[in-house]
Amino acid sequence: MATISTSAKKGFQQAGLLGTEGSQLDLYFLDLALALAAKGKDQVRPNPLVGAVIVRDGIIVGRGFHRYEGIKHAEVLALEQAGRLAKDATVYVNLEPCCYRGDGKRTPPCSDALIDAKVKRVVCCMTDPNPRVSGRGVAALREAGIDVTVGPRISAARILNSEYLVMF
Ligand SMILES: [Zn+2]
């Protein structure tokens, strides 16, 4: 069996190309985010299914999922629900937060909203293969000093959004 070095593995994980294990708590909240995302089924096309859960001190303070007609993205809905409690919180989301505007896109970047809300950490299952995002959302968050984990539950996240992923 082929093996890769620890540093290469870490690089792949940071790029969202390889899953990471994640703590039990991370997995629990990511499963909730995945379940929320699934609620948008048949409503989000051509957008991806996205669910977000915001946790502060072990308590869920915000949750949201995307419906195409609702326009607002899951992260923004969850941030609105959390209000000021989003500060220093951890955000669990099944897909990398978006980071661009224009090109017919109807919402401002979620990366900006997360930075403005001063969240402490973001955990996402996978990067967004859309070339307009593709790791830039994660990079923007990290540049702002937010701790970002990419990779736990990557298989479940890929299966959930298989229809979206084949577009890229
Ligand atoms: Zn977004």
How would you describe what is shown here?
The chain has helices at residues 6-14, 24-38, 74-82, 110-116, 136-143, 154-160, 162-165; strands spanning 51-56, 59-65, 90-95, 121-126, 147-150. By secondary structure, the protein is an alpha/beta fold. It has a 5-stranded mixed β-sheet with strand order 2-1-3-4-5, with helices on both faces. α4 (110-116) packs parallel to α5. The chain is globular and about 45 Å long. The mean pLDDT is 92. Bound molecules: zinc ion (ZN). Residues 73, 75, 97-98, 107, 110 line the site of zinc ion.
Quick tags:
alpha/beta; binds zinc ion; 5 strands; 7 helices; 168 residues; 17% strand
Write the layout of secondary structure elements.
Elements: H1 6-14, H2 24-38, E1 51-56, E2 59-65, H3 74-82, E3 90-95, H4 110-116, E4 121-126, H5 136-143, E5 147-150, H6 154-160, H7 162-165
Parallel strand pairs: 3-4, 4-5
Antiparallel strand pairs: 1-2, 1-3
Helix pairs in contact: 4-5
Bound molecules: zinc ion.
Produce a short descriptive summary.
The protein is an alpha/beta fold and 168 residues long.
